[in-house]
Amino acid sequence: MNKVKIIGTGMYVPGEAIDNEELKKIANIDFDAAKIESKLGIKQRHIAKLRGLNETTADFSVKAAQNAIENANIRADDIGLIIVGTDTPEFITPATSIIVQGRLQKAEKWTSTFDVSASCASFTIAFDNAVRIMKTDSSIKHALVIGVYNMPAFIKEDDTFAYPIFADGAGAIIIENNINDDSDYIDSQLLTDGTQWDYIGVYSGGTKNPVTKERIDAKEYGLMSLKPLPGDRNVRLWPMVVNKLLEKSKLDLQEIDHFIFTQINKSVILKVMDELGLPYEKTTCIMDKYGYTGSGCVPIAFHSAIQEKSIKRGDKIMFVASGAGLAVGSNVFTY
Predict the structure, then answer these.
(1) What pLDDT score was predicted for residue 65?
(2) 157 or 6: which carries more pLDDT confidence?
(3) Is 205 exposed, middle or buried (0-12, 13-18, 19+ CB in 10 A)?
(4) CATH number assigned to the domain comprising residue 230
C-alpha cells in the first residue's frame, strides 16, 4: 500500500500572550493563579476577543495552514484534501473546511473537504481519516489537516473556571502521498463513550436547543459545565489507549520516541509518563505558553516539538487525545 509522510507543520495563535495576572484585569475575574500554574502548567494564553481582534476559527485555521504550506514548500493548489478537526466551528453550516478551501484555493477545485467534530480528539481522528483516504486514493498528492480551537468565543463574561484554562489556537500538518522513504502512518486506536455527553460542552445552538431570547436570559448558552468530569479520567484512559495501540500496531513501548497528549493538565501528563515508566523527555508540554487549545493542542505541540528538535526524522511518534463526550483518538506513525 502507498506510504504517506508529514512534510510540513504550522501553527497560529492570535495576538500577544495574556499572562494570569493580566487575564484577571482584562476579563475582570479572580482565580487562583498559583494553582493554575502549578497543577495545570498554564502561565499564559492567547485569546482573540480579549485582545480586541476580529478573528475566529476560520482565520486561525487559514493562518496555521498557510504556515504549514510554506513549511512544506508546496502550493495551496497542490492540496486535494482538507479536513478541519474542531468542536468550535466557524458556523454550524457550512463546514469550516469549505471556508478554508475557499480562502486558500480561491476557486472551484477537485478538492475534498469536511470537518471532524469529536471534541478535543478532533485532530487525531481527522488525521486518521486523512491517511486512510489517501491510502485508498493515490490521486490525492497532498492533504491538509487542521486542528483548531476557539472555545473562548463561547465563554461567558463571568466564568472564572473557563477563562484561565481555555485558549485560542490552530495547528496544521501537510501530508504527502506516495513517498519512498521510511516515513509512514502505522495505525490508530479510537474509543468512544457517548454516555458521558452531559459533562461539559456547548449545548445551545443546535437543533435540540436553538438559541432564543429566553435561553439567553437564563444563561443557557455558550460553554456550560453540567457536572464535574471524573478526576482520574485521563490518568486511567491514556495508558490504556497507549497499550491498546501498541498491541494493535505490534510495537513495543520502548520503540516510541515521543508522545504527545492532550495539553490540558501538565501534572496528568507527567503522571501518565510515570505510569508508563518513561522519562519526561519523551513528551512535550506547551500549556505554559498557549493554555489549553483543545482540538488545536496536539498539532501545536507537535509543531513546537519539531521546532525545538525534540522530534526528528525517523522517530516513531504517538498522539493521544481525549475530549468531552467522551471521544478519544490516537495515532502512531514514523515521522
Answers:
(1) 98
(2) 6
(3) middle
(4) 3.40.47.10
